[in-house]
């Protein structure tokens, strides 16, 4: 569906995200293979094909979701954020307030907010598709 919507994603944005994905993969490989040297050519080859396609798809989805959220007034409330953080903290046997502070300290709270927002957008899209097809979900 995302591929059917036609708009250009600037190459430098795709390249930046692909590079970030490559760097993350490289650091994960280094962690897993302490004794072996990282094969830079292999990572570069993967980066140029898979990472760029994935990056473009992620950017397209984000921009489309941004438009849907704006058009449909889909926002994330403080209560939803607190509830999500509380659930995650309790599942990790951590104090919710301290966990919230930790997330803020390492700039990870935005990831949780984005996850909640994306879930709300998916729910909205499923509801609209179900209404269109007269399905009960």
Topology readout:
Layout: H1 11-32, H2 40-71, H3 78-91, H4 96-105, H5 109-133
Structure notes:
The protein is mainly α. It has helices at residues 11-32, 40-71, 78-91, 96-105, 109-133. It has two domains: 8-71, no CATH class; 75-137, no CATH class. The chain contains five helices and no strands. α3 (78-91) packs across α4 (96-105). The radius of gyration is 19 Å and the shape is flat. The chain starts with 10 loop residues before the first helix and ends with a helix.
Would you kindly provide a brief summary of this structure?
With 137 residues, the protein is mostly helical. It has helices at 11-32, 40-71, 78-91, 96-105, 109-133.
Largest sheet: none
Along the chain, the helix and strand elements come as HHHHH
Beta-strand content estimate: under 5%
Distance between the termini: 21 Å
Which descriptors apply to this entry?
137 residues; mainly alpha; 0% strand
């Amino acid at each position: 569906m995302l591929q059917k919507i036609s708009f250009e994603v600037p190459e430098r944005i795709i390249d930046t995200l692909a590079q970030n994905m490559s760097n993350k993969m490289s650091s994960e490989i280094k962690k897993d293979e302490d004794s072996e040297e990282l094969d830079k050519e292999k990572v570069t080859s993967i980066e140029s094909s898979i990472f760029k396609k994935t990056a473009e798809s992620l950017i397209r989805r984000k921009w489309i979701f941004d438009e849907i959220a704006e058009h449909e007034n889909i926002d994330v409330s403080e209560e939803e954020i607190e509830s999500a953080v509380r659930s995650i903290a309790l599942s990790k046997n951590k104090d919710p307030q301290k966990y919230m502070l930790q997330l803020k300290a390492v700039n990870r709270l935005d990831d949780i907010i984005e996850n909640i927002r994306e879930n709300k957008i998916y729910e909205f899209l499923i509801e609209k598709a179900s209404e269109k097809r007269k399905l009960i979900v």
